Amino acid sequence: MTTPPNSLSENGNSDRPNSDGGGFSIKYYCTTWAMAEMWGWDSFCQKVKEAGYDGIEGVPPATRESRELMFAAVHKYGLRFAVTCGCFEPGDYTQQSVGYKALLEDMVQLKPDFINCQTGRDHYSFEQNKVILDIADAISRDSGIPIYHETHRSRFNFAAHITKDYLEKIPELSLTLDISHWCNVHESMLEDQQDAVSLALSRTTHIHARVGHHEGPQVNDPAAPEWKDILGQHLRWWDEVVAQRIAQGQTQLSITPEFGPPSYMPTLPYTCQPLADQWQVNLFMFKLLKARYSQ
I need a labelling partner for 144 at 20 to 30 A (CA). Which of 65, 273, 276, 284 fits? Predict the structure, then answer.
């Protein structure tokens, strides 16, 4: 992987939001996506700890035995733990809402720091998705565990202008910002939707730090010079989230670099070999952001 160009420091240190002082902190989580099952929980968590992350985030294993192995490794290496989940099975609105409630009731039993949800469906009505969001809100209130809703293709918040309507009508709605999906959905860097984006940034409590572009939700390597301008735009969005959290008097924010494995990561034809190393790409993003917000 190449070293990012110096011009990414375009705003200068003094212009960037700073996570030091004032009681504000950022926790960094490593995605478990594909990597935990590849290395095994103990080896994976050891690598996460040695890299300097605060914790892990991902879909918990389905079996009790595998969950015990995961938690043993999490505790052994002193890591934090957060959940990603969502109802991925096809089904109508009634099936989705029942399955979603059962899923969240299971996830809160794991006592994560927070739950990041892929919620609802893009073809449900506002009223139908609102019922599902209300289920999450009730479970969050009862359990005391924050539940954030990831901006994601196929979900209720698949597009910037659609999400704006939900945010205006549901003031307690909190987002996991994965804005890479919106770049792909709108085939743009969202220049013409600044009001919708600004509102979303102000309601973001967790970030999935993946870099998307006009034609896809994941660049092959964010350190490559051809993606400099695209990466720079994502950095400006994330800067604004940090600045907003500080301005709102919030004490923390969480970030998970979330570049995925093949075939989410672009691959070569015929061999299906990935164009970059998933661990290294996420590590690059983690180090870049940690350095950016500690200066």
Answer: 65
What tokens appear for 16 in the block? 């960037």
Provide the residue type at 178 as one letter.
D
Token match 């035995």: residue? Answer: 65
Question: What pLDDT digit, counting tens, does each position of 176-227 carry?
Answer: 999 999 999 999 999 999 999 999 999 999 999 999 999 999 999 999 999 9
DSSP structure class, residue 161? H
Q: Distance of CA 31 to CAs 4, 37, 127, 152, Å?
A: 22, 12, 32, 16
How would you classify the pairing of strands 175-177 and 252-256?
unpaired
Contacts of 128 (CB under 8 A, 6+ apart): 93, 97, 120
Degrees, nearest 5: CA angle 156-167-193: 85
- Alpha carbon 92 to its chain centroid, in Å, reads 26
Q: Is 154 left (phi over 0), alpha (psi -120 to 50) or beta?
A: left
Q: Which helix (H) or strand (E) holds 112?
A: none
